[in-house]
């Protein structure tokens, strides 16, 4: 079996729900784009923040280390990742999502959406 490579989707496995139980969370190394509404649902912004221009929000969120990028055309923010590439919300000890109940749609819908729908870069612990 070929080890999964995030950059080579031909190494990804056909997804089965049971795979998540023993996974290292490699999907949590993929860039995650979110909207202002997602950031509010994640409790990283308040509803009051909707009134602030997206560019100003992006500047503040980047300074706080919450996002890496703001895509002005789409109005989406790319969540920040740790130096090792992991999502900042992925538990370092247990490799589980710390905000699972509040995770954004991009995470909630993986792998139905993404670079190779129906496949994931699964790697057992």
Map the helices and strands.
Elements: E1 13-14, E2 33-34, H1 36-41, H2 54-63, E3 67-71, E4 76-79, H3 105-108, E5 119-120
Antiparallel strand pairs: 1-5, 2-4, 3-4
Written account of the structure:
This protein is of the alpha+beta class. It has a domain at 31-109. 16% of the residues lie in helices and 12% in strands. The chain is built from three helices and five strands. The protein has helices at residues 36-41, 54-63, 105-108, and strands spanning 13-14, 33-34, 67-71, 76-79, 119-120.
Helical amount: 10-25%
Range of strand content: 5-15%
Strand order of the largest sheet: 2-4-3
Task: Profile the largest sheet.
Answer: 3 strands, antiparallel
**Using only CA atoms, what is the Rg?**
15 Å
Low-confidence stretches: none
Helix-strand pattern, N to C? EEHHEEHE
Give the total of beta strands: 5
Content-based structural category:
alpha+beta
């Amino acid at each position: 079996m070929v080890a999964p490579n995030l950059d080579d989707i031909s190494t990804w496995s056909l997804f089965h729900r049971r795979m998540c139980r023993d996974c290292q969370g490699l999907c949590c190394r993929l860039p995650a784009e979110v909207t202002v509404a997602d950031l509010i649902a994640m409790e990283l912004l308040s509803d009051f923040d909707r009134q602030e221009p997206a560019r100003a929000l992006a500047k503040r969120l980047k300074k706080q280390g919450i996002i890496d990028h703001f895509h002005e055309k789409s109005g989406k923010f790319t969540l920040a990742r740790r130096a090792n590439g992991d999502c900042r919300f992925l538990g370092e000890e247990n490799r589980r999502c710390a905000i699972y109940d509040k995770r954004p749609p991009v995470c909630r819908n993986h792998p139905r959406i993404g670079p190779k729908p129906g496949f994931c870069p699964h790697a057992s612990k």
